[in-house]
Amino acid sequence: MSRLALQTAVRSLWLLRNHEKAWQPSAMISAAQTSSSARWTHSKPRELKNRIRKAEKLAEPRTIDVAEDFRSHNYKEEDLRPQGGMIEKIVAEHKERGTIFLIPGKDSPARESVTQALVRLVSIGVRPEFLLDGCVQKAELFRVLTTHGESSLKIINTLVSIGNLTYEDSLRILSEFSEELLACSNNGIRERIEAIVASGISTSRELSHALRKCPALLFAREPAEMRGLAEGIGGFFSRRQASNMIARCPQILLKNIEEVEEKYDYVFYQMGAEGEELSECGDRWIDGMDLQEMQTRHVFLVLTGKYSQPDPKRPQLKMENPKLKKILNTSDEQFAVNVAGVTMEEYTVFKAMRLRQLEVEKKERTYERIKPSKRKAYERRQKERPELLEHVFDVARDSSL
């Protein structure tokens, strides 16, 4: 199917529906607030590719349910003493669930090394109810605290003192990623936290939020790689905008730099959006939307008359386009109904038609890729481009969509 046929079909569909109503803004999608209950949310060498792929998977939002309500448990006083019956209580609970732990007896000299981490955590203020329930709910947490007590305490102290996390949140992270954190070592975790701060996280609150939302930052990528990606983002954004984006979506530091560059390259040069708009968008364009879907939404809005390309010769004129976050940070149904003003069925038909067109064309990229260093030259070319009369159609320009 030719491009002209695709455009004609979409425009005809639009005229048949005779929609003259104004665009109705969709309901704002507020990001879930991260609380102390911990709502958690990911051509290079093969080893790096594997690390990035694993990090992206771990960067997905996730909730760890550990000791949400202490009052629902009727623990005996003896069960809350690490040197008393806490160990026996945890072992008994896991035995009922089919997991067997062998621990030294109360009179054994090895008993002290097993209980060392638990005793220390209670002594510095961690509630014994939380610690007991956490070890019961997460067998891995109990295992790592009893077999790698000293290393675990060092990691927890680093997360608290440098990462500005609470002891409870540090234990939650340790319960999920104990193997990765132990393999990374305490010094490696410290270096990664320093790299996150150097990437633009300026306050302790932003840092703790970033670590709770994306714990994989602590181990899934080398510090130098995170710093390099932050520098790449700085090529398109101001320092404030880049810091704002990294604070909102810390998982961007785990992404493939080429994929991220392609996305904001398209937003800047093909959609004509500003860096401020993109930095205020949510994280769906980073995690849940590939470049092809981004292009499809943009092209659909242009063809249906909902999006006008900014005039490079008169950049001071602001177009009445939908907000970028409405385009990129919404579901397909929200985008179709509230932004494009069509039904979900119509947008689905268009997506299928466009996919078929792209398969026929088999083009790697349907628009010109602009590097940050070439930005001024690109803008100069756009301004020097001759203005066409109303009855003249520039096929080359139209095909760039």
TrEMBL record:
Gene3D superfamilies documented for this protein: Transcription termination factor 3, mitochondrial
Keyword vocabulary terms for this entry: Transit peptide
InterPro entries: MTERF, MTERF_sf
MF terms in GO: nucleic acid binding
Family: Belongs to the mTERF family.
This protein's name: Uncharacterized protein
Organism: Caenorhabditis auriculariae
